[in-house]
Amino acid sequence: MIGEDVFELDMDMNVVKPPVTPNLRLSACTPIWYSVYRFRPRAKCVIHTHSMNAQMATLLDPTERSTCLRMTHLEMLKGVGGHAYDSVLDIPIIDNRPSEDMLVDQVEKALVKYPKCNAILVRRHGVFVWGDSWEQAKTQCESFDYLFETAIKMKSMGIDPAAVPKEGTYRVDDEGGEEKKEDSSRPVKRMRTEKKDSADATDGFNAEADLNNAADLEKDT
C-alpha cells in the first residue's frame, strides 16, 4: 500500500480524492470511523487491529455475555487516557458480526455508555482505539494491548484484574484515616542539609552535593 492509495473523504462520507490504483474499495470499517468522529469530536485517528491479546481478552468470561472488561490498579492504565493507576477502567465489549459495517449500532451505544474509554473490544475479533492524533492513537493502542495481555495472564494466575488488591499497594486506612507507612528498612535518599549558598555547595543529581550523590551510587557490599 502506498500513500496515494488512501481514500480522502469529507465528513459526509463523500470521496474527495480517490486512490490512484483502480478498483480499490472503501474499508468496511468506514462507518465506524465516522461514528467515533461524531461521538468523540476531538478524535483525529481511529485504529482497528486484530490483536490476539484483544481477541483473547474478550473470552475471559467463559459465558461470553460480559459487556465490558474491567481493570484497576495497574500502572499502564495511565497510558490509555483519562485514567490513573488506581482508576477503574471499563472497556466495552460488543458482539461480532459477519462484516464490520454491521457493528455501527453497537459501537454507538458503547460510545454513549462508556464516555471515558478510548477503545471498544469486539468479541472474537479485535479492538478499535482512537486518539486526538495518530501518535496518541498509536500510543493508546499499544497501552491497551499491554493491558489486554496483562488481564489474560492475571486470569491464568487466578487473579481478578478488576479486584482492588488487598495488599501490596499504597492506600489510606479506611478506619483510622492514616496512610500506610513506608517500609522503614528501605534505603532513603540522602538529602543535602546545608543551604545552597554555602561556600562548598556543589551541584549534583537533583541539585544535591556530589558527595551525597556519590554515596547513593555506591553498590551494596
Helix-strand category: alpha+beta
User: Percentage of helical residues?
Assistant: 25-40%
Overall 3D shape = elongated
Count of separate DSSP helical elements: 5
Strand order of the largest sheet: 3-7-6-5-4
Strand content: 5-15%
Radius of gyration: 24 Å
Detail the poorly predicted runs: 187-217
Brief rundown of the structure:
The chain has 221 residues and is α+β, with helices and mostly antiparallel strands. Helix content is 26%, strand content 14%. A hairpin with a 5-residue loop joins β1 (8-9) and β2 (15-17).
Which terms summarize this structure?
single chain; 221 residues; alpha+beta; two-stranded antiparallel sheet; 5 helices; 26% helix; elongated
What does this structure look like?
- With 221 residues, this protein is an alpha+beta fold.
- It is built from five helices and seven strands, in the order ββαβαββαββαα.
- It has helices at 30-39, 52-57, 104-113, 134-156, 210-217; strands at residues 8-9, 15-17, 45-49, 68-72, 88-94, 119-122, 126-131.
- The strands form two sheets. The chain has a five-stranded mixed sheet, with helices on both faces.
